[in-house]
Every structure is written in structure tokens, then in C-alpha cells.
Specification:
This protein has 145 residues and is mainly alpha-helical. The chain has one domain (21-144): Serine Threonine Protein Phosphatase 5, Tetratricopeptide repeat, CATH 1.25.40. It contains 6 helices and 2 strands. It has a two-stranded antiparallel ribbon with strand order 1-2.
């Protein structure tokens, strides 16, 4: 069970906030993203290999992957790791996971990338489900932009 509180709101469902990453992990990602383009995906993948629950890392691997199935795979892993992380932080399958919370963005980027690349590979029903889920998690639509 998580030590993270469930944030209840008088205006709707509870909000879950993914804990922020450490400064060391942020630094490692920043260094990997600063490598030459031809080495960048490999460098980010090395960071994620050491930290497989690192959602922002998975989102960056997806961003650095070839369009289609390669990107789809990275975003899908990040999405499922994100669901595990949300559940470990008191999320019970519904409620907000807002883009405004920086620590939620890795997961939301994975979900948005999964929607985009599901569409590219012809998985239209999955793309639609992902789009709908994004809006349920953050009705502002910021994660979809």
C-alpha cells in the first residue's frame, strides 16, 4: 500500500499524482538527451534499462523511435508501467491524473503516444480507447496536444 494520499475533490473524482523522479535520474536523462542524435535513443534506453519504471524515460524512447510499431512498443510498455505506478499510488481505476502535475507527464505522454501509434499501425479501436482515457484522466485536453 502506498504512503501517497488520495486527493479528494468536492468537484469530482479523486486525483492521483505520480511521485516525482530523483534529481539524479533527471540528470541522467538530461545527459542522455544531450548526446548526438545517432546515439540518443541508445543512451536513453540505457537509463531506462537501469530504471524500468521510469515513465518519462519510456516516453522519450517512444519519441526517439521510428514511427509505427517501434514507437508503439515503447509507449505501450511505458503505459503499462504507468498503470502499475498509478495503482501503487492509490489510483483505483478512475479519477484524475492531470497534465498540470509535471510528475504525471511521462505516463500521459506514453498514453498519448500509444494512441497516435496505434492509429498509425491500424489499431483504431485501441487508438480511440486511449484518446478517451486521456480525456477521462485529464479533461483539460493538455495531454493530447
Amino acid at each position: 500500500m502506498s504512503d501517497q494520499p488520495v486527493h479528494l475533490s468536492a468537484s469530482g473524482p479523486p486525483e492521483t499524482i505520480i511521485p516525482p523522479i530523483s534529481a539524479d535520474l533527471r540528470k541522467r536523462l538530461d545527459l542522455a538527451l544531450a548526446t548526438p542524435q545517432q546515439d540518443r535513443r541508445r543512451a536513453v534506453s540505457a537509463v531506462v534499462a537501469d530504471n524500468p519504471t521510469f515513465l518519462e524515460g519510456w516516453a522519450n524512447i517512444g519519441d526517439l523511435s521510428e514511427q509505427g510499431i517501434d514507437a508503439y512498443m515503447a509507449y505501450r510498455v511505458g503505459y503499462h508501467r504507468g498503470l502499475d505506478t498509478l495503482r501503487a499510488n492509490s489510483w483505483r481505476g478512475s479519477g484524475y491524473v492531470r497534465w498540470a502535475r509535471e510528475s504525471n507527464r511521462g505516463f500521459l505522454r506514453c498514453l498519448a503516444g500509444l494512441a497516435k501509434h496505434a492509429r498509425i499501425i491500424g489499431e483504431m479501436s485501441e487508438a480511440i480507447r486511449c484518446d478517451q482515457f486521456l480525456l477521462q484522466l485529464d479533461p483539460s485536453g493538455e495531454a493530447s496536444k
